[in-house]
């Protein structure tokens, strides 16, 4: 197995593949002011196994296109959609987020939790804007510095993980520069990292290692995630996910 295949195996049975929670998704949704007399067209980009997709489908009248590069995640999402009787509201699409071929202004809402970093915040916003109606909303969670002061060691670690990690002020500038107006922002609480993401992850470590005969690559994945957890705990006052909700104005 390649490292990517192992990573997919490590995450495929998880409720989420990144920090977040149903209450964060609902909180972000509250900033969105759209008529719902006909179903809203929503794209959920980098949906993973669909933690947030299911919450969205349960709470808005919508037709959701859930996009991810990895079919195994989409299979899980389709199963969950069936189990919750939401299969008519959710369509899955295997596609890379930087190679989407949706129509111009096709969507009322573009949603993406913990995934835009894969192509970069600025690049993602510029590309996805084309698919969003004027007056439509972007809702994105993204690694964010909580102030301008932070220890060097913390800065280096998260910067190595994601070179575009920045303050909310700078993220908002990027949104505004690209014709978006911020309508809401909040910081994900610690419980969305620990209870919803890291604790369930820690519970999977042993089984994952056993399943893969304690291979070098499997140990590498576990060790890297243990280190990430250590850094999150050390730096939680300096770094979190910010949730940005912005309206397309121009
Ligand atoms: N939104 C989910 C959540 O919060 O639980 C998943 C977030 S996870 C950190 C990032 C997701 O992006 C993964 O599901 C991964 O498979 C997906 N992904 C990675 N590269 C991608 C790409 N090029 N295009 C689309 N999705 C991609």
From TrEMBL:
The keyword Methyltransferase applies. Transmembrane segments: none annotated. It comes from Halanaerobium polyolivorans. CDD domains: AdoMet_MTases (cd02440). Pfam families: Methyltransf_25 (PF13649). This is Class I SAM-dependent methyltransferase. InterPro entries: Methyltransf_25, SAM-dependent_MTases_sf. Coiled coil: none annotated. It catalyses: phosphoethanolamine + S-adenosyl-L-methionine = N-methylethanolamine phosphate + S-adenosyl-L-homocysteine + H(+). It comes from the Bacteria. PANTHER family: PHOSPHOETHANOLAMINE METHYLTRANSFERASE, PHOSPHOETHANOLAMINE METHYLTRANSFERASE ISOFORM X1. Residues 42-136 form the Methyltransferase domain. Keywords: Methyltransferase, Transferase. Pathway: Lipid metabolism; Phospholipid metabolism. GO terms for molecular function: phosphoethanolamine N-methyltransferase activity.
